[in-house]
Amino acid sequence: MKISTKGRYALLIMLDLAVYNTGEPVSLRDIARRQEISEKYLEQIISLLNKGRLVQSVRGAQGGYLLRRDPKDYTVGEILRLTEGDLAPVDCVGNSGVTCEHKADCVTVEVFEKINEAVNKVVDNITLQDLVDRYNENAASQAAMLI
Which residues contact 64 (CB under 8 A, 6 or more apart)? Predict the structure, then answer.
């Protein structure tokens, strides 16, 4: 399993919205500038996040995007599954609905099931708040180095 740029950028958008939350909508232009990502590409991803009800769109001159919930209430798994779909390493495990006629006597399927379980356990136990905390720790370390 490899996370695409869409999934990676979705995490960056959500992290940016959490870190720069002042109660006012955050513009996509500001996110694109801070993250050094094309605004056009971010528009496609934010649309998915909006349709998935992870973010709220605010229209108008001072419009932008806001998180719908507290950062502690989002998991990395939720965000990645919205943009990537099932995170299973192969189609015969996970939620893809694909069945394999050899699954009953396939020895390697156990390996892929364990990989799937491990990946899901990791991404479902890291919250957006955990990423915000890590971001803030890194920012504090960088500031301390400048003193």
Answer: 24, 25, 26, 27, 28, 30, 58
The C-alpha atoms of residue 111 and residue 125 are separated, in whole angstroms, by 21
Query: Greater confidence, 76 or 147?
Result: 76
Partners of 26 in the beta sheet? 65
Interacting residues of 122 by C-beta distance below 8 A, sequence separation 6+: none
CA distance 121 to 77: 9
pTM: 0.89
| Residue among 10, 34, 37 nearest 20 (CA) | 34
Mean pLDDT of 14-20: 97
What local confidence, expressed as pLDDT, does residue 97 receive?
63
Give the CA-trace dihedral at 136, 139, 144, 147, to 10 degrees. -140
Which residue intervals of 22-108 are DSSP H helices?
Answer: 28-35, 39-51, 76-84
Whether 39 contacts 1, CB under 8 Å: no
